[in-house]
Amino acid sequence: MAYSNLIPQSLGVIMKKLHAATALALIASSGLMARPILISDLDPEQLYSQAQINQQIQSVKYKSSASLSDLQKEYLAIEKIKTMDAAQLSHEDLGYLNKASSYQSKSFRLHDEGPLPVAIFDVASQAKFKLQQHFIAKELAALDALKASNQADYLNSLVSNSDLDSAAIQIAKVQSLNSLTQQQAKNLATDLLKTRSLSDPLLIKSVEQARDFDLSKQLLIKLNNHDAHRQLDALSKQFTVFEQEALLTSVINNNQYLASQALAQYAQLPVHVRVNTLLLDKLQDPTLGASAAKAIALTSDHQLFEQLASLAVEKNASRLQVANALSGLRFAEGDYARSLLTEIVKNKQIAYADMAQEVTKWLD
Amino acid sequence: MVRLIKRSIVTISVVAVLAMAGLTANAEVLTYTENTNSANEMALGYPVPVPVDSMTAINGFRSYNFLKSHHEALALTHAEMTSIKVGTTHNGRDILAYQFGDANNTDVDGLVEPAFLVNGTIHAREWQSPEVVTELIEQIIERKADQGMIQYLLENTNIVIVPVLNVDGFLQTQRYPINVTNSPGTTTASTPNDKFAQPRDGRMRRKNMPGVDEILSTEADRLNGVDLNRNSLHFFGVQPDNSTPTSLIYGGVNPFSEPETQALLEAAKLAPESELRFYQDSHSFSRVLFVPQPNNPRLNAITQSVATKYQNTTLSQGANYFPVIDQVGSGIATTADYFAYEHLIPAWTLEIEPPQGFQGEPNGGAFYGGTGASHSGFIAPDSAIARIRDQLAPAQLLMFYHQAGPAYVKSVQIADTNDNLVYAAKWQTNGNSRSLNVTTDQVLTGGQQYKLWIQFSKPMRWRVNNNIAQYPGQSVTLSPNLSFSGNANNISFSRSLTSNNSNWQNQAGSALSGFASYMDDAIMLNFTMPSNVVVASSNGNTNFNLTINVQDFSGLALDANPATLVDWTNGAWTGYENTAGVQGDTGGSDNSYAIKVANNSLTLATGGGSSSGGGGGGGSSSWLLLLLLAGLGLKRRG
Ligand SMILES: [Zn+2]
C-alpha cells in the first residue's frame, strides 16, 4: 500500500485510521519529547494532494472571501505579505503582520518520502521576515539621516554600542556602509579591528569596502567562519596578481581553515607569479597535502606533473608524499598526467601495495 | 564560487547556441536571493550558498569536484579505505563507493564480517546529504587508530559508503546554485509564488539526467529524469505519479532501470548483501527518519529500538531526529523500502534538518531565520552545515557498533595473589561453533584474595577525557555485574562480586593486566572468594559458577551462550541466547565458567545446614532471585 495512493480521494479518513496506532506508539516510546505533527494529528480535510493544491490556487480568484478554504486563505496571505513594501508599511499592514507572525498553518501536503505532513505555506515566517525588513529599513533611514546631518556622529555610531544593538540595527549598519568612501571604510575597519571579533559582519564589510591589502590580510589569515569563503574569493580579486600571490600565501601558511580553498585559488595565478615550491612543499602537510595535490593538478603545468611523478617513485619520499604525488596526477585528469601514472604502474614503481591497487583502479 | 558561476555561464552560452537551435520555448530561469523578492526572484532571508572549492571540511558546501578528490585522496592515503567504481551515470560519470575495513573480510574470529551500507545524494538538491556522509567518512579515517570503537569496526565489520549516487543531478544543482526553472504549467505572467511553488531543474533538481542537457533553460527536457528513490523493486509504481515521466516521482520503466540505482545494488554486493545489517539513505529535509516496517515483528522491534537509540544520540547533540514509523507492509519503492523488505535489515530514509512540523521550531529555511519560502529547506545556510554534520556522525557510528552484534565473553582468567594462574578458560571458534577451552582449573580457596580478568569481543565502554561515560544519548549500566552462584548442601546460593567502572581496562597489557585488543574490551578486579557458603562435608569441592552480565555501550546485552555464534538471519539475531539459554534478540548473562572451591575453606553445615547471605560481598536479593529462577525451572542450555 502506498501513502500517496490514498491522497486524492478521501485520503484523510483512511490515513487517520492507518496512522493512529503508529502515532500512539511513537508518543509512548518517546515520552513527552517534542515530535513533529503527524498525519494522525490532522483533520482529513487538512491534507491536500498536489493536484488539489493546484486546483485550489487556480480557483482562488473566482471565490468570494467568505467561501475560501484555509489553503486559499494562506495562499492569499503569502501573496499579500510579499507584495507589501517593507520600507512603507501602513499601520494596518503592521497590525496584519504582527497577527500573521503567530499564525499556525492549517493546510498540509504529504512529505515526498514518507508519512509526514508538510505545511504548504509558512505565513508566520513570511510575516516575521517582512517585519524584520521593515525594522531594518527604518534603521537604515535613520542612519542615512544622521549621515546627512552629521557625518562624524554617524561614523561614531557605527563603532559604538554593538552589543546593545538589535539585529535590525546591526544589519542596517552593515547595509549603510555601501555609501562610505574607501578612506572612511579603511578608518572604520582599522578601528573595528582593534575591538571587534573577526567574524563581526560590520568589520568584514568595512574591510571589503576598504580595498586595502594589509586590512584584507589581517582579516583573511584568521577568519574561519562561513563568511570566510566568499571573502577570500572577493577580497583576493581586489588586488594585483602579485598582491594576490602574497595574500594567498599568507592565508595558506597561517589559516588552516581557509588554506584548501586558498590553494585552489593560488593554482589559478599566472605561471610567472606562482611559486611552485610552495605547492610542492605542502604535499607533505598532513592536512593540506591533498589540497596541494589538487592545486598542482589545476595548474595544468606539465613540469609540475613531472615533479609529481618523480616524487611518487622517490625512495626517500614519505607515504604521505607518495600518496599526494599520485593524487595530484589523478586529479589532473589530462592525457599527460595519465601517461605518467600509467608508466609508474607499468614499472611497478609504487612502494606501497595498497596504493598500487588504488592507482591501478584509476587506470581501468 | 563566483568564479564557478561565471564559468558555467560561459559554457552554457556556447553549448546553448548549438543545443537550442530549433527550440522555440525556453523555461523561465528564476533566482533565489537573500533579501529580494521580484517577478523572478525569491528571498530566502539568508545568503544563498554556492559550492566552495575546498577539499577540507568548511562551514559551507563543497563542490562535487573537490569532494570527490577529497574522497579519492583519503582512499589512496589510508589503507583502511578503498574506492570501488560501482557504476556510470547516464552522462558517463563514475559512481564511486568506498569500503572501510582491513584487508580481509573476516572478523577476529575468522567469520565473515557483518556489513552496513550508507547511501548519499540520491536526490540532487539535497546538499546536506553529501556533507553529512563525508563527515562520516572523515571521522572513520581520523579515528582509525583509536584502539576503540572505530578500530574495532574497521577490523571486524565492513562499512560501505556511497557519498554521491546521483552525480549528474548533483552537478546540475551545483552548476546553478541559485537558479531554478518555473513550476510546470506557469508562465512569465504567473505570480512569483506560483512560479516558485514547484521548482524543478537547476538548484531544485531531484531526479537523474537521462537525455537531459545541462542547460537550465531548455524547456523540452527539464522535467525529465527518474526519481531514483522510486526505482526500486518493492512497491514499484504504486503511486499514480510514478508512471508519469515528467512527474517529480517518476519511477522509471522498470525497477532498477537506472544506472544509478544499479550502482547502488553493486555497492550492496560489496557488503555482500547477505551480510548487510543496516542501511541508511541520506536525504534532506525534515529532521526525521522514515522507517519501513515489513511484516516481520522481530525485525520491526529491533529497527524501532535502534531508531530510538539513533534519535537519543542526536538529541544529546542538540537535534531531535524523530523516527516516523511506517505502517506495516506499506511502502513507495524507496531504496530504504528495498533494503528493509529484500534483506530484512534495519533500514531507513534519513531526512537531515531543517525540521518540519516540530512544535516551537520553524519549518524549512525559517528554522535558520529565513523567510520559510517554498522548498527553502533544501537550501540550508552555509553557517549551519558544520553543526549538522557533527550532530549526525555519532548516531550513525552507533548504528554500526550496535549492528556489529552483541559482545560475548572471549576469555576468563583468575590468578592468586602471587600472580599464579588458577583458572583460565577461552572460547575457541571452530567454523560455525565455539567451545570453551579450560586450560587451567585449579581448586580455589574460600576467603582468599584473587584477581579476575574477563575479555569481551568488543570495546564495551565509551570514554570522555579518559573517564568512563555513557555514549552520547545512551543509558546503559556502566559497571559490570558479576556473581558466583551454584548449589551447595542442596541449596542454591549466589554471591555477588563488588565491581565498578574503574574495573574497565584502558591500558594495554592483555591477560590479567590490561585490555586485550581494544580499549575497554576487558575488566579486571580483585575479589575475595566467598567462604560463607554452607557445605555438607569438608571433603571435595563445590562449583562456583561465575555469572557475567554486561551491556555494550549501545545497550546490547551479552550473548549468554558463546558456543552458538551470533548472526543475522531473516530480520533478527540468531544464536543470541538469553540467560535461560533461549534464542532471541535480548541476550543475557553468561554463566559458563565453573570455578572449583575447596569445601574445607567453606562453611560446614551444622545440623540444619541452611545457607544465607551476608559477608564476602554476598547479596541476598540476587540469591532470592536465583532461588526463584530455579523454582521456575529456567535452566540455561549447554
Ligand atoms: Zn530526498
Could you explain the architecture of this structure?
Chain A has 19 helices and three strands. Chain A is mainly α and 364 residues long. Among the domains of chain A are: 37-142, no CATH class; 275-364, Leucine-rich Repeat Variant (Alpha Horseshoe). A three-stranded mixed β-sheet of chain A has the order 1-2-3. In chain A, a hairpin with a 6-residue loop joins strand 2 and strand 3 (117-119). Residues 1-32 of chain A have low confidence and may be disordered. With 638 residues, chain B is α/β, with parallel strands linked by helices. In chain B, a hairpin with a 2-residue loop joins strand 19 and strand 20 (491-497). The model of chain B is unreliable at 1-23 and 608-638 (pLDDT under 50). Chain B folds into two domains: 7-400, Zn peptidases (Aminopeptidase); 409-637, no CATH class. Chains A and B meet through helix 1, helix 2, helix 3, strand 3 and helix 5 of A and helix 2, strand 3, helix 6, helix 8 and strand 10 of B. Bound molecules: zinc ion (ZN). Zinc ion is lined by residues 123, 126, 283 of chain B.
Provide the descriptors you would attach to this structure in a database record:
heterodimer; A: 364 residues; mainly alpha; Leucine-rich Repeat Variant; three-stranded mixed sheet; 19 helices; disordered N terminus; B: 638 residues; alpha/beta; Aminopeptidase; 2 domains; eight-stranded mixed sheet; five-stranded antiparallel sheet; 27 strands; 25% strand; disordered C terminus; binds zinc ion
What structural class results from the helix and strand content of chain B?
alpha/beta
The largest inter-chain interface, given as chain pair and residues per side, is:
A-B, 79 and 88 residues
Question: What's the mean pLDDT score of chain A?
Answer: 90
Radius of gyration of chain A: 30 Å
Strand order within the widest beta sheet of chain B:
3-4-6-5-8-11-9-10
Instruction: Output the structural class of chain A.
Output: mainly alpha
Percent of residues in helices of chain A: 55-70%
Distance separating the two termini of chain B: 66 Å
Helix content of chain B: 10-25%
Strand proportion of chain B, as a percent range, falls in 15-25%
Output the helix-strand order of chain A.
HEHHHEEHHHHHHHHHHHHHHH
Instruction: Tally the helices of chain A.
Output: 19
The assigned CATH architecture of the largest domain in chain B is: 3-Layer(aba) Sandwich
